[in-house]
Amino acid sequence: KMKSEGCVTIVVVVCCLLCVVVWGQKPVGLHVSGNKLLNSQNQVVRLRGVDHSGSEFACIQNNGIWNGPADQNTINAMKAWRVNIVRLPMNEDCWLGINGVNPKYGGINYQIAIKDFVNLLNQNEIAVILDLHWTAPGTQRATGQMPMPDMDHSPTFWSQVASAYKTNPWVIFDLFNEPYPDNNAWDTVAGWECWKTGNCPNLNYRAAGLETLVSAVRATGARNLITLGGLMYSDSLTRWMQYKPYDPVNNTIPSWHNYNFNYCIQPDCWSNTVGVVARSYPIIATEIGENDCTGNYITPLMRWMDSVGLHYLAWTWNNWDCKQGPSLITDWNGTPTNFGLAYKQHLASGIANETALIV
Question: CA 219, CA 212: separation in Å to the nearest integer?
Fold first, then answer.
């Protein structure tokens, strides 16, 4: 009996060690292979989804945590559109519970709300991007977008978020929503140096470079896929490959934002900048859209992205006036706006059938 128990103990220990070895040496969950994204079965994955705005602003405005419901009915409506990934914008003050955020909507309550919705999405075979959207240095309240993350709070935010989700390989970390350093330059050495290192002489606060945030995530042991947007509100990827921060697990890719009001709106620009990077890396366009309540811009954009293998999410799954900004739905049941209808119909087309289920 004693020997039997000892054998069982040894087997359990060996099995646990093997689990650690597998996690430490082999890709788990979404991971990079050349310019493709693969799942844990090494199947090619095509990500098509939506942004769900609210968790970046409601809490700091003392209006709750979400804008609209974050429940199964919402997910059912998303699934009817064939969505397999959802991006959740976040606020560092709310996550950390600092700078006067109402405790009802910040700190542990905010963290639990995010976790519950992430878990519910994952249970429905939908991956999640957690995005650091609103930030601010020191005692300044995070009430909007800043040119760069801040050293005061952003590394701590990502250390905590990565620690919370490092065992969930279906969560992607989008480390900073839309950098716009060096006075919103499209392509300057100063802008890209600031982007990578945090050496930003034009800013009046101490910036955190993207390499600092990558290091903060990896220091926790998290191997989750990381996305990094480039300059000019993530529209420019001109020197992304040159300035890409070191990632010890090689699981970092570009994110791209593109709207009809951006700089890079011509197919030649798409091909000569984003298309070049797409030959070497998978790219997730974490925001696409247009502000005219039509699909006239995103339809050719999506066709081009499909042709070069990009993944994409439309902004945004909120029932706002689509003539004031890109809004996909008129109600929380998923009734599309004209803009949303163009996106929904594209997801229902043949290209959507190529998407591998995330399981």
Answer: 10
Name the CA dihedral angle for 235, 239, 240, 246, rounded to a multiple of 10 degrees: -150
C-alpha dihedral, 94 to 96 to 101 to 104, nearest 10°? 80
The residue written with tokens 């900073």 in the block is 176
What is the distance between the alpha carbons of residues 171 and 357, in angstroms, rounded to a whole number?
A: 15
- Can you give the pTM of this predicted structure? 0.92
Which one, of 215, 211, 187, lies nearest residue 199 by Cα? 211
pLDDT computed for residue 323 by the predictor:
87
The whole-angstrom separation of Cα 55 and Cα 318 is 12
Confidence at 273, pLDDT banded by 50, 70, 90: very high
CA nearest neighbour of 84 among 166, 172, 158: 172
Dihedral sign, Cα of residue 94, residue 99, residue 105, residue 110: positive
Residue located via tokens 């979400």: 66
Q: Is the dihedral of CA 243, 183, 89, 139 positive or negative?
A: positive
Taking residues 36-54, report their average pLDDT. Answer: 94
Q: What pLDDT score does 235 carry?
A: 98
Between the two ends of the chain, the Cα-to-Cα distance in Å is 40
* Confidence at residue 340, expressed as pLDDT on a 0 to 100 scale: 98
Percent over 70 (pLDDT), the chain: 89
Question: For 64-92, how does the pLDDT look when each residue is reduced to its tens digit (9 = 90+)?
Answer: 999 999 999 999 999 999 999 999 999 99
Residues 30, 109: Cα–Cα separation, whole Å: 28
Integer Cα distance of 171 and 166 in angstroms:
8
Supply the DSSP symbol for 273: I
Residue with tokens 């999410």: 313
Question: Between the CA atoms of 298, 268, 286 and 313, what dihedral angle is there, to the nearest 10 degrees?
Answer: 30
Residue 349 tokens read as 């087309």
d(CA 276, CA 156): 34
pLDDT at 24: 45
Please give the sequence-ordered ranges of beta strands (E in DSSP) within the chain, or none if there are none. 31-33, 36-38, 48-51, 85-91, 127-134, 171-174, 226-229, 252-259, 284-289, 311-314
pLDDT digit string (tens) for 182-201? 999 999 999 999 999 999 99
